[in-house]
Amino acid sequence: MAATQGLPSQMKAAHLREYNKPYELVTVDVPKIKDNELLVELRAAGFCHSDLQVIHGQFGTKLPIIPSHEPAGVIVQVGSRCGGSWKVGDRVGVLNFKNACGQRETAGFQHDGAFAQYLAADPETTVLLPASLSFEQAAPLMCAGATVWGALEKATADLEPAATVAIVGIGGLGHLGLQFAKSLGFTTIALDSRQAGRDLAAEVPDGLGPDLVVDSTSEDAAEKILAFTKGEGVAAAVVCTDSIAANTWTLRLLRVGGVMVPLGLPPDRWQFDADVLVYRELVIRGNYVASAESTRRMMEAVARRGVRSHVTTVELDDVPGIVDVYQDKNFRGRLVVKIC
Asked: Which end of the chain is more exposed for a tag (fewer CB within 10 A), N or C?
Protein backbone atom coordinates (compact mmCIF):
# COMPACT_ATOMS: atom_id res chain seq x y z
CA MET A 1 0.00 0.00 0.00
CA ALA A 2 1.17 3.54 -0.69
CA ALA A 3 2.75 5.40 2.22
CA THR A 4 0.47 7.34 4.55
CA GLN A 5 3.07 9.94 5.46
CA GLY A 6 1.56 13.39 5.83
CA LEU A 7 -2.05 12.22 6.16
CA PRO A 8 -3.97 13.09 9.33
CA SER A 9 -5.33 10.34 11.55
CA GLN A 10 -8.72 11.98 12.00
CA MET A 11 -11.14 14.04 9.93
CA LYS A 12 -14.24 16.17 10.21
CA ALA A 13 -17.45 14.57 8.96
CA ALA A 14 -21.23 14.69 9.26
CA HIS A 15 -23.17 11.79 10.76
CA LEU A 16 -26.79 10.79 10.46
CA ARG A 17 -27.36 9.20 13.86
CA GLU A 18 -31.16 9.07 13.97
CA TYR A 19 -33.88 9.12 11.30
CA ASN A 20 -35.68 12.45 10.80
CA LYS A 21 -33.06 14.33 12.81
CA PRO A 22 -30.46 16.86 11.58
CA TYR A 23 -26.97 15.72 10.67
CA GLU A 24 -24.35 16.06 13.41
CA LEU A 25 -20.77 17.24 12.93
CA VAL A 26 -18.29 14.72 14.34
CA THR A 27 -14.59 13.86 14.30
CA VAL A 28 -13.82 10.33 13.08
CA ASP A 29 -10.84 8.32 11.91
CA VAL A 30 -9.60 8.82 8.36
CA PRO A 31 -10.47 5.65 6.38
CA LYS A 32 -7.68 3.09 6.07
CA ILE A 33 -7.85 1.92 2.49
CA LYS A 34 -7.43 -1.64 1.30
CA ASP A 35 -4.78 -2.55 -1.28
CA ASN A 36 -7.42 -2.31 -4.04
CA GLU A 37 -8.79 1.09 -3.01
CA LEU A 38 -7.99 4.78 -3.47
CA LEU A 39 -8.03 7.40 -0.75
CA VAL A 40 -9.61 10.62 -2.01
CA GLU A 41 -9.32 13.95 -0.23
CA LEU A 42 -12.74 15.42 -0.87
CA ARG A 43 -13.24 18.96 -2.11
CA ALA A 44 -16.99 18.89 -2.79
CA ALA A 45 -19.98 16.61 -2.20
CA GLY A 46 -23.57 16.87 -3.37
CA PHE A 47 -26.84 16.58 -1.46
CA CYS A 48 -29.30 14.49 -3.46
CA HIS A 49 -33.02 13.80 -3.05
CA SER A 50 -32.01 10.24 -2.15
CA ASP A 51 -30.14 11.63 0.86
CA LEU A 52 -33.43 13.09 2.07
CA GLN A 53 -35.05 9.68 1.63
CA VAL A 54 -32.25 8.14 3.73
CA ILE A 55 -32.99 10.68 6.48
CA HIS A 56 -36.64 9.62 6.39
CA GLY A 57 -35.67 5.95 6.73
CA GLN A 58 -37.08 4.95 3.34
CA PHE A 59 -34.15 2.59 2.60
CA GLY A 60 -33.68 1.15 6.07
CA THR A 61 -30.09 2.42 6.25
CA LYS A 62 -28.10 1.18 9.23
CA LEU A 63 -27.11 4.17 11.40
CA PRO A 64 -24.91 6.02 12.11
CA ILE A 65 -23.64 6.76 8.63
CA ILE A 66 -21.78 9.52 6.81
CA PRO A 67 -24.20 10.72 4.08
CA SER A 68 -23.76 11.85 0.45
CA HIS A 69 -22.97 9.84 -2.65
CA GLU A 70 -21.77 12.64 -4.95
CA PRO A 71 -18.02 13.03 -4.21
CA ALA A 72 -15.31 14.94 -6.05
CA GLY A 73 -11.74 15.43 -4.91
CA VAL A 74 -8.07 14.56 -5.29
CA ILE A 75 -6.37 11.17 -4.88
CA VAL A 76 -3.91 11.25 -1.96
CA GLN A 77 -3.18 7.53 -1.63
CA VAL A 78 -3.19 4.61 -4.08
CA GLY A 79 -3.54 1.02 -2.94
CA SER A 80 -0.77 -1.31 -4.11
CA ARG A 81 -3.14 -3.55 -6.09
CA CYS A 82 -5.17 -0.82 -7.80
CA GLY A 83 -5.54 -1.37 -11.51
CA GLY A 84 -5.08 1.38 -14.06
CA SER A 85 -2.74 4.35 -14.00
CA TRP A 86 -4.07 6.10 -10.91
CA LYS A 87 -1.67 8.46 -9.21
CA VAL A 88 -1.58 10.85 -6.29
CA GLY A 89 -2.86 14.25 -7.41
CA ASP A 90 -5.44 12.97 -9.92
CA ARG A 91 -8.67 15.00 -9.88
CA VAL A 92 -11.51 12.49 -9.69
CA GLY A 93 -15.18 11.91 -9.12
CA VAL A 94 -16.50 8.73 -7.54
CA LEU A 95 -19.73 7.06 -8.63
CA ASN A 96 -22.22 6.21 -5.95
CA PHE A 97 -21.64 2.50 -5.65
CA LYS A 98 -18.89 -0.06 -5.03
CA ASN A 99 -18.68 -3.39 -6.82
CA ALA A 100 -18.23 -5.26 -3.56
CA CYS A 101 -18.27 -9.01 -4.28
CA GLY A 102 -20.49 -8.39 -7.28
CA GLN A 103 -23.06 -6.47 -5.17
CA ARG A 104 -23.77 -2.75 -5.43
CA GLU A 105 -23.05 -1.05 -2.11
CA THR A 106 -24.09 2.57 -2.30
CA ALA A 107 -22.24 5.37 -0.54
CA GLY A 108 -24.44 7.09 2.02
CA PHE A 109 -26.82 4.11 1.96
CA GLN A 110 -24.81 0.98 2.86
CA HIS A 111 -21.40 2.50 3.60
CA ASP A 112 -20.00 5.88 4.58
CA GLY A 113 -20.27 8.63 2.00
CA ALA A 114 -18.83 12.00 1.10
CA PHE A 115 -19.78 14.53 3.79
CA ALA A 116 -16.27 14.10 5.17
CA GLN A 117 -12.73 15.17 4.40
CA TYR A 118 -11.64 11.77 3.05
CA LEU A 119 -13.28 8.83 1.28
CA ALA A 120 -12.13 5.31 0.44
CA ALA A 121 -12.98 4.80 -3.24
CA ASP A 122 -13.29 1.84 -5.56
CA PRO A 123 -11.04 2.47 -8.61
CA GLU A 124 -13.55 0.60 -10.80
CA THR A 125 -16.13 3.30 -10.17
CA THR A 126 -13.79 6.30 -10.10
CA VAL A 127 -13.40 8.63 -13.10
CA LEU A 128 -11.01 11.42 -14.01
CA LEU A 129 -12.43 14.93 -14.16
CA PRO A 130 -11.94 17.33 -17.08
CA ALA A 131 -9.48 20.08 -16.23
CA SER A 132 -12.16 22.67 -17.06
CA LEU A 133 -14.61 21.30 -14.48
CA SER A 134 -14.63 22.62 -10.91
CA PHE A 135 -15.10 20.22 -8.00
CA GLU A 136 -18.39 21.94 -7.16
CA GLN A 137 -19.65 21.28 -10.69
CA ALA A 138 -18.26 17.74 -10.74
CA ALA A 139 -19.94 16.53 -7.55
CA PRO A 140 -23.56 16.54 -8.85
CA LEU A 141 -22.46 14.64 -11.94
CA MET A 142 -21.53 11.62 -9.82
CA CYS A 143 -25.16 10.75 -9.15
CA ALA A 144 -27.61 13.22 -10.72
CA GLY A 145 -25.57 13.59 -13.89
CA ALA A 146 -24.61 9.93 -14.23
CA THR A 147 -28.18 8.83 -13.55
CA VAL A 148 -29.84 11.03 -16.16
CA TRP A 149 -27.01 10.47 -18.67
CA GLY A 150 -27.37 6.70 -18.28
CA ALA A 151 -31.13 7.02 -18.69
CA LEU A 152 -30.70 9.02 -21.90
CA GLU A 153 -28.25 6.50 -23.35
CA LYS A 154 -30.77 3.74 -22.72
CA ALA A 155 -33.76 5.73 -23.96
CA THR A 156 -32.15 7.01 -27.16
CA ALA A 157 -29.91 4.11 -28.22
CA ASP A 158 -32.02 3.34 -31.31
CA LEU A 159 -33.34 6.81 -32.14
CA GLU A 160 -32.85 8.67 -35.38
CA PRO A 161 -30.85 11.94 -35.33
CA ALA A 162 -32.78 14.95 -34.02
CA ALA A 163 -35.62 12.80 -32.65
CA THR A 164 -37.71 14.50 -29.98
CA VAL A 165 -36.88 13.70 -26.35
CA ALA A 166 -38.94 14.97 -23.41
CA ILE A 167 -37.44 15.68 -20.01
CA VAL A 168 -40.15 15.73 -17.34
CA GLY A 169 -39.35 17.52 -14.08
CA ILE A 170 -36.72 20.25 -14.43
CA GLY A 171 -34.86 20.13 -11.15
CA GLY A 172 -31.44 18.82 -10.23
CA LEU A 173 -31.58 15.93 -12.73
CA GLY A 174 -33.87 17.47 -15.32
CA HIS A 175 -31.83 20.58 -16.08
CA LEU A 176 -28.80 18.34 -16.68
CA GLY A 177 -30.91 15.97 -18.76
CA LEU A 178 -31.95 18.80 -21.08
CA GLN A 179 -28.33 19.75 -21.69
CA PHE A 180 -27.21 16.16 -22.21
CA ALA A 181 -30.04 15.44 -24.67
CA LYS A 182 -29.17 18.53 -26.67
CA SER A 183 -25.45 17.65 -26.60
CA LEU A 184 -26.40 14.29 -28.14
CA GLY A 185 -28.16 16.05 -31.02
CA PHE A 186 -31.81 15.54 -30.05
CA THR A 187 -34.74 17.95 -30.18
CA THR A 188 -35.82 18.57 -26.60
CA ILE A 189 -39.01 19.40 -24.70
CA ALA A 190 -38.94 20.53 -21.06
CA LEU A 191 -42.05 19.78 -19.00
CA ASP A 192 -42.70 20.91 -15.45
CA SER A 193 -45.73 21.84 -13.38
CA ARG A 194 -43.71 24.46 -11.46
CA GLN A 195 -42.80 27.91 -12.73
CA ALA A 196 -39.43 27.55 -10.99
CA GLY A 197 -38.69 24.43 -13.02
CA ARG A 198 -39.70 26.05 -16.30
CA ASP A 199 -37.56 29.08 -15.46
CA LEU A 200 -34.60 26.81 -14.73
CA ALA A 201 -35.04 25.19 -18.14
CA ALA A 202 -34.46 28.60 -19.73
CA GLU A 203 -31.26 29.22 -17.76
CA VAL A 204 -29.06 26.45 -19.15
CA PRO A 205 -25.88 27.40 -21.09
CA ASP A 206 -26.22 28.79 -24.62
CA GLY A 207 -26.97 26.19 -27.26
CA LEU A 208 -28.19 23.61 -24.74
CA GLY A 209 -31.66 24.97 -24.01
CA PRO A 210 -34.92 23.18 -24.82
CA ASP A 211 -36.75 23.64 -28.11
CA LEU A 212 -40.09 23.79 -26.30
CA VAL A 213 -41.05 24.46 -22.67
CA VAL A 214 -44.48 23.27 -21.51
CA ASP A 215 -46.48 23.69 -18.32
CA SER A 216 -47.54 20.10 -17.71
CA THR A 217 -50.63 21.26 -15.78
CA SER A 218 -52.07 23.31 -18.63
CA GLU A 219 -55.17 21.85 -20.26
CA ASP A 220 -53.60 21.90 -23.72
CA ALA A 221 -50.17 20.54 -22.69
CA ALA A 222 -50.58 17.23 -24.53
CA GLU A 223 -51.99 19.01 -27.59
CA LYS A 224 -48.97 21.34 -27.73
CA ILE A 225 -46.58 18.38 -27.60
CA LEU A 226 -48.53 16.47 -30.23
CA ALA A 227 -48.54 19.51 -32.54
CA PHE A 228 -44.81 20.07 -31.98
CA THR A 229 -44.10 16.45 -32.98
CA LYS A 230 -46.37 16.65 -36.05
CA GLY A 231 -48.92 14.33 -34.51
CA GLU A 232 -46.52 11.50 -33.63
CA GLY A 233 -45.68 12.03 -29.96
CA VAL A 234 -42.22 12.07 -28.43
CA ALA A 235 -39.69 9.38 -29.26
CA ALA A 236 -38.40 9.08 -25.71
CA ALA A 237 -39.00 10.57 -22.28
CA VAL A 238 -36.91 10.65 -19.12
CA VAL A 239 -39.02 11.38 -16.04
CA CYS A 240 -37.08 13.07 -13.24
CA THR A 241 -39.82 13.07 -10.61
CA ASP A 242 -41.29 10.38 -8.38
CA SER A 243 -44.83 11.62 -9.02
CA ILE A 244 -46.88 8.60 -10.08
CA ALA A 245 -49.36 10.90 -11.83
CA ALA A 246 -46.59 12.56 -13.85
CA ASN A 247 -45.17 9.20 -14.94
CA THR A 248 -48.60 7.88 -15.90
CA TRP A 249 -49.33 11.01 -17.93
CA THR A 250 -45.91 10.98 -19.64
CA LEU A 251 -46.49 7.48 -20.99
CA ARG A 252 -49.38 8.83 -23.04
CA LEU A 253 -47.08 11.38 -24.74
CA LEU A 254 -44.94 8.71 -26.41
CA ARG A 255 -45.14 7.81 -30.07
CA VAL A 256 -45.64 4.20 -31.16
CA GLY A 257 -42.62 2.23 -29.98
CA GLY A 258 -41.51 5.08 -27.72
CA VAL A 259 -39.30 4.60 -24.67
CA MET A 260 -39.77 6.01 -21.16
CA VAL A 261 -37.22 5.85 -18.35
CA PRO A 262 -38.63 6.73 -14.90
CA LEU A 263 -35.97 7.88 -12.44
CA GLY A 264 -37.99 8.67 -9.32
CA LEU A 265 -38.40 6.28 -6.40
CA PRO A 266 -41.97 6.75 -5.14
CA PRO A 267 -43.01 5.27 -1.78
CA ASP A 268 -45.90 3.51 -3.54
CA ARG A 269 -45.93 1.19 -6.55
CA TRP A 270 -45.83 2.49 -10.12
CA GLN A 271 -49.15 2.49 -12.00
CA PHE A 272 -49.23 2.50 -15.80
CA ASP A 273 -52.07 2.37 -18.32
CA ALA A 274 -51.99 -1.16 -19.77
CA ASP A 275 -53.91 -0.19 -22.93
CA VAL A 276 -51.46 2.58 -23.81
CA LEU A 277 -48.50 0.36 -23.04
CA VAL A 278 -49.72 -2.57 -25.15
CA TYR A 279 -51.39 -0.92 -28.15
CA ARG A 280 -48.59 1.58 -28.70
CA GLU A 281 -45.93 -1.09 -28.08
CA LEU A 282 -44.15 1.15 -25.59
CA VAL A 283 -41.01 0.39 -23.61
CA ILE A 284 -40.38 1.28 -19.96
CA ARG A 285 -36.71 0.95 -19.01
CA GLY A 286 -35.24 0.97 -15.54
CA ASN A 287 -32.01 2.81 -14.80
CA TYR A 288 -29.96 3.10 -11.63
CA VAL A 289 -26.76 4.96 -12.47
CA ALA A 290 -24.35 4.98 -15.39
CA SER A 291 -21.33 2.70 -15.47
CA ALA A 292 -17.83 4.16 -15.21
CA GLU A 293 -17.43 3.75 -18.99
CA SER A 294 -20.69 5.57 -19.66
CA THR A 295 -19.72 8.28 -17.15
CA ARG A 296 -16.48 8.87 -19.04
CA ARG A 297 -18.57 9.52 -22.16
CA MET A 298 -20.64 11.93 -20.09
CA MET A 299 -17.49 13.75 -18.98
CA GLU A 300 -16.42 14.11 -22.62
CA ALA A 301 -19.79 15.72 -23.40
CA VAL A 302 -19.48 18.00 -20.37
CA ALA A 303 -16.04 19.17 -21.47
CA ARG A 304 -17.00 19.50 -25.15
CA ARG A 305 -20.33 21.32 -24.75
CA GLY A 306 -19.91 23.14 -21.43
CA VAL A 307 -22.73 21.36 -19.60
CA ARG A 308 -23.16 22.94 -16.17
CA SER A 309 -25.35 22.51 -13.08
CA HIS A 310 -27.21 25.32 -11.36
CA VAL A 311 -25.32 24.99 -8.05
CA THR A 312 -25.91 26.40 -4.58
CA THR A 313 -22.96 25.80 -2.21
CA VAL A 314 -22.74 25.56 1.56
CA GLU A 315 -19.80 24.82 3.88
CA LEU A 316 -19.30 21.53 5.73
CA ASP A 317 -19.96 23.34 9.02
CA ASP A 318 -23.41 24.26 7.69
CA VAL A 319 -24.45 20.67 6.93
CA PRO A 320 -26.72 20.32 10.01
CA GLY A 321 -29.09 22.84 8.36
CA ILE A 322 -28.80 21.53 4.80
CA VAL A 323 -32.26 19.95 4.69
CA ASP A 324 -33.90 23.32 5.38
CA VAL A 325 -31.95 24.82 2.46
CA TYR A 326 -32.95 21.96 0.17
CA GLN A 327 -36.64 22.12 1.09
CA ASP A 328 -36.95 25.88 0.67
CA LYS A 329 -39.63 26.45 -1.96
CA ASN A 330 -37.33 28.82 -3.86
CA PHE A 331 -34.44 26.37 -4.08
CA ARG A 332 -33.44 25.31 -7.59
CA GLY A 333 -30.80 23.09 -9.14
CA ARG A 334 -28.19 21.19 -7.12
CA LEU A 335 -26.98 21.65 -3.55
CA VAL A 336 -23.24 21.11 -3.01
CA VAL A 337 -21.12 21.10 0.15
CA LYS A 338 -17.63 22.60 -0.14
CA ILE A 339 -15.42 20.32 1.93
CA CYS A 340 -12.10 22.19 1.73
From this structure: C
